[in-house]
Predict the structure.
Amino acid sequence: MNRRSFITRGFLASLGFVFTSPFLDRKDESLKAATLRVHHPDTSLWSNDKVSLAWIGHSTVLMNFYGKWILTDPVFFGRVGVYALGFTWGPSRYTAPALSIDELPRVDLILLSHAHMDHMDWESLKTISERQPGEIDVLTSYHSKDVIGELPWKSLTELDWGESHEIDSTLLRAYEVKHFGWRFPWEKDRSRGFFKDGRSYNAYLIERNGKKILFGGDTANTSKLDVLKTEGVDVAIMPIGAYRPWKFNHCNPEEALIMADRMRAKYFIPIHCNTFQQGMEPRDEPLKWLNESVKNYPFKLGLNEIGQSFQI
């Protein structure tokens, strides 16, 4: 069964789940329309002699890693959810992306942490791939490439926990986190014990010219990333939202800081908040909590607002 047939058959079942989620019905007037972006990164100023990055929104980060342009979990449109009948059906965005797809530089590599619709967004990936057909390498988690296999990538590689892959002098390693991988509720998933044929979920360590960045993807509080404490992680990009009541799948800001501290990161950058209303916590709580708590840790906060840029 191809992806289009699969989506169509799953559409009605998933639509009920999407629209009956209690946090989508909250009467918060501020969520009715996406706010204007406050920061707009000027990537023309980014040097190929440095590592530059910007938080585009949700879990999307754009990096110029010594001349290698990398994009994580691209989500650029107004909704995330089931893509069918030419539309995306799901929660709406309340903070606009810092850059549109048309404003992106030419992307070399996309990292996808897992197949959830707010991380592996079909509409965004289709648009980006068709903008640069045959030019972009993609790394994704185990048993997930079928979702986007029909798109015109240069290469599409699944990376399992503990595996590494090198592309143009950029070393990428996949690490286990604490999350779940199914895209639809009936799919096999490693969190349910299907280790051989279940969808998986990754964090990635990106290394180039001696610098190392950890893209945490999506995770609950876990000690699984403690193995990185001897790696010399320069930047930890960690999720900090949607923890209430989903604490078994998403870490809160304090837990994300603790994990970054245990891996001995030098800088911390937040993601997975302030874009979609996915948890019951107030939308401004994760960043407020982060800004207050980071003072108690030895590393520095690289940025704390969507659209801000950071260099090392």
In short: The radius of gyration is 18 Å. Confidence is low (pLDDT under 50) at residues 1-32. The chain has four helices and 16 strands. The CA atoms of residues 4 and 84 lie 8 Å apart.
